[in-house]
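[Discussion] Sanity-checking designs against the backbone

I'm trying to build intuition for which residues belong where. Below is a structure token string of 136 positions. I'd appreciate it if someone posts a full sequence so I can compare it with mine line by line.
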């Protein structure tokens, strides 16, 4: 059995985050010692590691809940887990495309060589979205 501090050290998840995950229902409330200390099992370490890796990959709390639920039923086909991952991938690709448009626009306006603010492309473009070349 591990204390919350040891669980934090083993998984790299901060103690307040562990408590938050408990409140969100991602990890079960642990057993308590006679001194009312939280005590975690190796299963808790594995589950928290799963959650941390999922968060590192950008999955939402809601998606992680779904994936954890699916992981409790190893006999089921993986279609639902695959669907969650594909949807997340599509969301990430959409954000990347938006960031690329932002990058192009920022590169374009930052090439301003005006001598003063009155003629500055950065200021003008920020004041008038219609001067942007891309929708972002």
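Best answer:
Here's mine. Compare freely.
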């Amino acid at each position: 059995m591990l204390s919350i501090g040891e669980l934090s050290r083993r998984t790299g998840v901060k103690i307040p985050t562990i408590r938050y995950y408990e409140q969100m229902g991602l990890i079960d409330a642990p057993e308590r010692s006679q001194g009312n200390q939280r005590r975690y099992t190796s299963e808790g370490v594995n589950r928290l590691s799963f959650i941390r890796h999922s968060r590192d990959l950008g999955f939402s709390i809601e998606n992680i809940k779904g994936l954890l639920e699916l992981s409790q039923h190893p006999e089921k086909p993986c279609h639902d887990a695959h669907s969650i991952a594909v949807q997340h991938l599509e969301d990430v690709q959409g954000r990347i495309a938006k960031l690329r448009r932002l990058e192009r626009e920022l590169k374009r306006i930052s090439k301003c060589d005006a001598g003063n603010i009155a003629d500055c492309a950065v200021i003008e473009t920020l004041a008038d979205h219609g001067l942007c070349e891309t929708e972002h």
